[in-house]
Amino acid sequence: MGNSRTVGGSGYGSAGYGRGPGGGSQSSDSSDSPQQAQREIESSHEKYAEKAEITDRQAKQMQSRRENVVDSLKQEGLEVEEDHIFGSVMQGTQTGPLDEDSDVDVLVVLDADEHRNWAEDENGPRNALNAVRRRLEKKYPNQEVYVDRNVVAVKFSDFTVEVAPAFRYNQVRDPDNPVGSVFGADNPRNGYAIPDTYDGQSWVGTNPRKFQAMYDAVNENNGGKLQKVAVSAKKWNEENGKPVNSYHMVLMAYKYFREDAPAGASTSQHMNRFFKNLPRYVNRETREPVYQEQIDDGMSKEEKKQAAQKAYKASEKIEEAEQLKKQGKTQEAKEKYREVYGNKFK
Model pTM? Predict the structure, then answer.
């Protein structure tokens, strides 16, 4: 990606040199053609999306750490039927560089016969989280270990591992029922249930593999553009104080491609249209597409208002950059885009 030759540094456009009628060079305010500007801006968007992703080496490092954490839980007496990486690492939307605020999400499916009390007791969701926390605190005494809503987080210096204890959906006590189903002939209860301790406690449905199949299908149907928009939008979100959580941002990118994305658009065109729609997406509820659970229910009206305002300001700057691009002012357009995406937009 992003191998097209740049124009702005080749002696034209912002460099300000042209050929006068007599063949000699003269200073001018000449610009690139709109076509040249479009090609270079598109290349910059492609490179930005590529550089926002983690490297293969970092992905392998996260996989290895996940395996060590799960092995630790087994050694500490948990009966684990299966475990899966889910979230941004599985989707390929994990952004770099890694730091302690980066996370790898691990779904640990427990044996309901061995851990029936957690699956069936009223306080089961919280007890399951606390049991996982105690075991990880014992294994990692020098790391910060804490419960965060539906996961147990282990904060390492390079990134955080978040463990979501789970049972099969039909094995837990009074799970929150799916609002709707996109499974077709599949039973929505074939997924998993994870604890949710926000505003009380309950078991809520999740099916990462089903969502990944849906995500991959939309991404493939759009020539890989969903992946590029999602990782770029997540990077913007991080650069702007995370007005929404990362999963929320990915779901809004997914929603854009399901409902509003034009066919055949370029990465830059999709990014521009996505940000035009982003304030509307933020102000409306966002639901997890498999179980239809509302994932932004923890945001207050004020938080939504602030997030929408940041998105609106970004869309305004993007529109200004687009006008500069149409005038062939490539470097000025890039500078305006950097006000949105940061200095890594080249």
Answer: 0.78
